[in-house]
């Protein structure tokens, strides 16, 4: 099958080079039948590609019929608006089936149609189009689905227990699908919580979701960018965890979510870390393992992006990695997978020479990176993990003594970095708490400290100079602010300090009785609230004029979330932490068993006689 696909790709490439259009005369007549000139093409290309004439004739006819079918579909779409979609069914039914439909149907209707026509369970399939999971509630047109789009169908496998029982099969699959979708939503929620509260998380409870450079030190990132980056990294880690279990159907949507989030970050930031490049490799690898590379139109582009990103991050000749880490042996596994995927892509495009070159590169790297199990065992007896042993042996070209020293030194470096990061985190928490004691909100404190490079005095001035942060400090809601009844004692205290009674009332009303914050703000603005903080004028009601309740700020504040909400948030965060690897170089620890098998498979294809 792979050989036939390769030969068809090779024939298509030859036709393109020779500018031959099989769907036009003289190769196709008015009745859409093959012309006599097709015989000349059969002889020409069977000789050129050294394949049997009968095989060449069959493949050329297949190419010609598909070209006519595509052209007819294009004309039909222009006249009727009926689009043709290429449906790529799950790998156990690995085949491409055309489907005609208008683009005004919903995603749910398309899913139902595919399921009915091909004997699939509707609630057990996912649809991927344009590298996005299909939204069941929106129309195809609203989601950018176009004529001739490629539609990838993923099917979730049942567990062995479900297969045996066969009890309420449809309901079980529906629940499973719902659970997977719920998990994706909880993943996003958990990552958002982590991005907002990471200052308060114990480092031991969050082993690795830090945004760090190649030295392992954290990178300072603006808060508005950090959320997108944490979401991207978290979805990527979730996808990688599923890929390790060979659950590619479930992993792919997470990887595509991560890709979308990474696109929210600046290119400059992505140049400093290799995460985005690794993600591109993982997406292409996932499509390949699903046997659906045809659905990924930009596979070559993704691999080129990964290669450029590695070069910018590591240096043109890995010099940056060598300066920082002393070697680049660990990162070579990424290039092995990159070359292998590039070679596979070239093979299926009919580019035999490039395919052989890149798969041979991958093969050479595999030989270089293969680890002697006895050496791994020897290092494990010294108290090192197998993962540490593999990574170190690759970095030290298999030298056990050097590898042991490298692991020891790296452990000491990581411990020092953790101590420094812990101290920075403690200081940041202390500064945030100090600003909160002044009456400012946690978010206002975080934004101000970010802009003030951690200086506490400058941060408090920054908040006072920023009315929107002052309002945020009070979690300001016009309705609750208008209804708040401050204490008369606090009002008299501010008047006693020399503030105008009306300004004091406005400040206490605005800050819901927070005496310290009201006083600081009035002092900062010369005794009068700035226009941005003053309430819009309105007619006062008798009840407002007579109100002087002794309610304290704490009595009126209430709780922002119920215990149930907190439990749900804790569950979401814990699910994230379960999939975060403890070792920051976990993504480099490939056993290379899969890669070895695939390399041998494609080398055999390239060595097979083509006739």
Helix content: 55-70%
* Distance from first to last alpha carbon: 14 Å
Percent in strands: under 5%
**Helix segment tally:** 28
Sum up the overall morphology in one term: globular
What's the overall average pLDDT, rounded?
79
The total domain count is 4
Quaternary status: single chain
Blueprint (SSEs and pairs):
Blueprint: H1 2-17, H2 37-49, H3 53-80, E1 83-88, E2 96-101, H4 107-118, E3 125-129, E4 132-133, E5 150-155, H5 160-165, H6 169-197, H7 223-244, H8 248-262, H9 267-270, H10 275-289, H11 299-314, H12 319-325, H13 332-348, H14 352-369, H15 373-381, H16 386-395, H17 400-437, H18 442-451, H19 456-464, H20 467-473, H21 478-483, H22 488-496, H23 501-510, H24 515-524, H25 542-546, H26 553-557, H27 563-578, H28 593-607
Parallel strand pairs: 1-5
Antiparallel strand pairs: 1-2, 3-4, 3-5
Helix pairs in contact: 2-3, 6-7, 6-27, 7-8, 7-10, 8-10, 10-11, 10-13, 11-13, 13-14, 13-28, 14-28, 15-16, 16-17, 17-18, 18-19, 22-23, 23-24
């Amino acid at each position: 099958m792979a050989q036939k696909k390769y030969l068809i790709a090779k024939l298509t490439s030859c036709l393109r080079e020779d500018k031959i259009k099989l769907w036009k005369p003289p190769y196709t007549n008015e009745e859409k039948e093959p012309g006599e000139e097709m015989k000349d093409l059969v002889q020409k290309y069977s000789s050129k590609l050294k394949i049997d004439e009968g095989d060449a004739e069959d493949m050329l006819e297949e190419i010609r019929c598909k070209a006519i079918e595509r052209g007819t579909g294009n004309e039909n779409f222009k006249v009727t608006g009926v689009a043709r979609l290429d449906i790529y069914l799950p790998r156990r039914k690995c085949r491409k089936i055309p489907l005609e439909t208008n683009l005004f149907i919903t995603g749910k209707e398309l899913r139902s149609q595919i399921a009915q026509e091909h004997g699939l369970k509707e609630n057990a399939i996912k649809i991927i189009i344009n590298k996005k999971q299909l939204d069941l509630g929106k129309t195809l047109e609203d989601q950018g689905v176009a004529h001739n789009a490629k539609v990838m169908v993923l099917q979730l496998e049942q567990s062995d227990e479900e297969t045996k029982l066969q009890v309420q099969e449809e309901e079980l699959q529906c629940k499973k699908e719902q659970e997977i979708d719920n998990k994706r939503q909880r993943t996003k929620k958990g990552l958002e919580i982590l991005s907002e509260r990471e200052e308060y998380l114990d480092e031991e409870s969050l082993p690795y979701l830090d945004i760090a450079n190649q030295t392992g030190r954290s990178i300072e990132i603006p808060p508005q960018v950090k959320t997108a980056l944490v979401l991207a990294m978290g979805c990527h880690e979730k996808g990688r965890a599923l890929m390790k279990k060979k659950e590619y159907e479930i992993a792919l949507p997470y990887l595509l979510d991560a890709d979308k989030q990474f696109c929210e970050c600046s290119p400059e930031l992505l140049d400093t870390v290799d995460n985005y490049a690794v993600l591109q490799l993982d997406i292409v690898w996932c499509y390949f393992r699903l046997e659906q590379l045809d659905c990924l139109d930009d596979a070559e582009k993704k691999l080129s992006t990964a290669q450029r990103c590695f070069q910018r991050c590591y240096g043109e000749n890995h010099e940056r990695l060598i300066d920082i880490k002393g070697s680049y042996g660990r990162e070579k596994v990424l290039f092995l997978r990159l070359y292998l995927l590039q070679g596979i892509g070239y093979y299926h495009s009919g580019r035999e020479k490039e395919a052989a070159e890149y798969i041979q590169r991958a093969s050479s790297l595999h030989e270089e990176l293969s680890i002697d199990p006895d050496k791994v065992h020897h290092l494990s007896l010294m108290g090192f993990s197998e993962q540490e042993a593999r990574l170190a042996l690759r970095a030290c070209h298999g030298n056990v003594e050097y590898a042991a020293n490298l692991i020891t030194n790296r452990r000491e470096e990581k411990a020092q970095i953790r101590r420094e990061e812990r101290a920075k985190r403690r200081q940041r928490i202390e500064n945030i708490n100090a600003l909160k004691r002044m009456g400012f909100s946690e978010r206002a404190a975080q934004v101000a400290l970010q802009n003030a490079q951690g200086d506490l005095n400058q941060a408090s001035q920054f908040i006072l100079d920023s009315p929107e942060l002052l309002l945020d400090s009070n979690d300001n809601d016009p309705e609750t602010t208008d209804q708040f009844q401050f204490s008369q004692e606090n009002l008299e205290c501010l008047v006693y300090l020399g503030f105008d009674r009306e300004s004091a009332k406005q400040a206490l009303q605005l800050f819901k009785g927070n005496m310290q914050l009201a006083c600081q703000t009035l002092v900062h603005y010369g005794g009068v609230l700035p226009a941005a903080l003053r309430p819009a004028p309105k007619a006062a009601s008798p009840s407002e004029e007579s109100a002087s309740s002794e309610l304290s700020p704490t009595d009126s504040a209430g709780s922002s979330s119920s215990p149930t909400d907190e439990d749900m948030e804790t569950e979401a965060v814990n699910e994230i932490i379960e999939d975060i690897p403890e070792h920051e170089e976990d993504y480099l620890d490939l056993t290379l068993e899969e890669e070895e098998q695939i390399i041998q498979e494609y080398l055999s294809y390239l060595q097979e006689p083509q006739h």
